[in-house]
Design a protein that fits this description.
heterodimer, A: 254 residues, B: 302 residues, alpha/beta, Rossmann fold, 10 helices, 13 strands, 31% helix, 27% strand, elongated
Chain lengths: 254, 302
């Protein structure tokens, strides 16, 4: 049997090492979870292929050019909001957040690790969806930096909403609620159906939703080649500020 | 001067209207094993969770290694084993241990620690598929991997089979030998008697007794024997020196307390002969920690 040296030698690892370790564990957890993979990868890819191929939509230009920005927005919502809310809700319920609080990893360090994990999974989603869309004949327009900026703002807004939910509701309620919101926003947010299919009176409301703002903004850049879409970006920034602010005040760690 | 591992004075912890900890004071010395004993609901876990920084005290003063329990500088120096849970359900045993190790500057090798606790072949098993005892051992491993100065173990052997209990006891002994301070809670008297340098018995959120196990059980000895139930003890009591006590508890089990010496033994056996009683299992014993515990905390179920 190996002799273990239990003599005290306490010390925290450097913050980057702790964050990298925690982010790695979170990424593995996301990629191993079948249900999460369904929401983050399989559904977006199926919607992309289905709506780009089948003549279900009446949109100007190539169908894939319309659908691709929508599923990119959906991908961000699935990871930053649905996946993160459910995972964090159950971590709270099983005392994982509490237990991590007794390690040298600080709470800001933990949140940083979660953000790194979400961004890494999103990068993978964007890569896969972009390749599939390009194979389907997608011709992206506009400045990719603007698109990237919108994706980041969307990530901040959806993360705030996800953490707000996970930090206040029971884990089961978060599970049900986060899936329901995913489905409702998938339908209402201009992901595959243009917002113009809804009555004129509703449109300002739908455009004020984070998913509506993200799809509208991404489509403006990637489909129409416009400059930075200030309106949708402001909507996302406000959602991000309000949701993250509320989450940081109300979050219960156990 | 080096500060004690834990120093608590007048700790109060309330949950709504319930007062779980009610002015508790105790001190755990460095390099010692301190066992906190108490019935369910006595306030053991609340006390330990305030020390770990998980809960805020409603009153009193708590210092851990000379620091406030919420001080981030404390995190690398302590190891924590919660009563249950605290591990993601899907993570593999080995991954969890390596993850916690990577938060520390000089962690123990995870593989050797897993092997030490009999978990080597479960390194790739997800946490939720481990048995209760395996989950406990993984949690214990995670508490010590960072080579802490002080370890808090909340009911470390609850639900363990005898082999795993002994493995846990050996580990605690080894920690103590390496100079680690250990604070643990337990229901098991034999565990406290075997492991602890210092035992603190708490009830209703207060300390009711403390000391080394041998001090708590005292030098007092008892004469015990078994015989047929409902013997009349009055004559025996009359023959015993003043200050002695004789009782039957439970039926057919007799306990004589007092100065147990050869003459007392002779008095008792003479009385038995006169009564025509054949005793079984006649023995002279020290009180156990369990006797002390039940005396202090009563026998009613909580």
């Amino acid at each position: 049997m190996t002799a273990l040296d239990f003599r005290p030698a306490p010390g925290a690892a450097p913050l980057p090492r702790m964050v990298a370790a925690q982010a790695g564990a979170e990424i593995r957890a996301i990629l191993r979870n079948g249900e999460q993979l369904l929401l983050t990868m399989i559904i977006p890819v199926l919607l992309l292929v289905g709506f780009a191929k089948a003549p279900l939509l009446n949109v100007p230009g190539a169908r894939v050019d319309f659908v691709a920005p929508g599923v990119l927005a959906l991908a961000v919502m699935s990871t930053a909001f649905t996946g993160q809310a459910i995972a964090t809700g159950f971590e709270r319920r099983y005392g994982v957040l509490k237990r991590l609080g007794a390690t040298p990893l600080s709470r800001p360090g933990l949140l940083l690790a979660k953000t790194v994990a979400v961004l890494a999974v999103e990068a993978l989603q964007v890569a896969v969806l972009s390749v599939v869309a390009l194979v389907l004949g997608w011709v992206p327009h506009g400045n990719p930096v603007w698109a990237l900026l919108l994706l980041l703002l969307g990530t901040a807004a959806f993360s705030g909403l996800g953490l707000l939910m996970a930090g206040t509701l029971r884990a089961e309620a978060t599970l049900a609620g986060a899936n329901l919101v995913y489905l409702v926003l998938l339908g209402l947010g201009g992901v595959v159906f243009p917002l113009s299919v809804y009555p004129e009176a509703f449109r300002p409301v739908l455009e004020a939703l984070p998913i509506g703002a993200l799809t509208t903004g991404l489509r403006a850049v990637l489909a129409e080649g416009s400059g930075f879409p200030l309106g949708p970006a402001c909507v996302l920034a406000i959602w991000a500020a309000v949701a993250l602010g509320l989450a940081s005040r109300t979050f219960r760690w156990e | 001067m080096i500060s004690p591992a834990v120093e608590i004075s007048g700790l109060v912890k309330r949950y709504g209207r319930t007062t779980a900890v009610d002015g508790l004071s105790l001190r755990c010395a460095r390099g010692e094993v301190t066992a906190i004993l108490g019935p369910n609901g006595a306030g053991k876990t609340s006390t330990i969770e305030v020390c770990e920084g998980f809960r805020r005290a409603d009153g009193g003063r708590v210092q851990v290694l000379g620091l406030d329990p919420g001080d981030p500088a404390l995190r690398p120096r302590i190891g924590v084993m919660p009563q249950s849970g605290g591990v993601p359900q899907a993570i593999r045993a080995g991954e969890w241990l390596r993850l916690v190790g990577r938060f520390h500057a000089h962690p123990l090798p995870a593989a050797a620690l897993l092997a030490r606790l009999g978990l080597a072949e479960h390194a790739r098993t997800p946490y939720r598929r481990l048995s209760g005892g395996q989950q406990q051992r993984l949690s214990l491993a995670a508490a010590v991997i960072g080579r802490p100065e002080l370890v808090f173990l909340d009911e470390p052997t609850a639900g363990l089979d005898p082999q795993a209990r002994h493995a846990c006891w050996d580990l605690v002994g080894e920690l103590r030998g390496a100079g680690v301070s250990v604070v643990l809670t337990t229901h098991y008297m034999d565990e406290a008697e075997r492991l602890a340098d210092h035992v603190v018995i708490i009830d209703h959120g207060r300390v009711v007794a403390e000391g080394a196990p041998a001090t708590l059980t005292g030098a007092e000895r008892q004469l015990r024997f078994r015989a047929r139930p409902q013997l009349n003890l009055d004559e025996l009591l009359a023959a015993l020196p003043p200050g002695s006590a004789a009782k039957e508890s439970p039926a057919g089990h007799y306990i004589i307390e007092g100065l147990v010496d050869p003459s007392l033994l002779a008095t008792v056996t003479a009385w038995c002969a006169a009564e025509g009683v054949t005793t079984e299992d006649l023995s002279i014993e020290r009180r156990t920690l369990e006797d002390v515990f039940l005396e202090l905390t009563g026998r009613e179920l909580r």
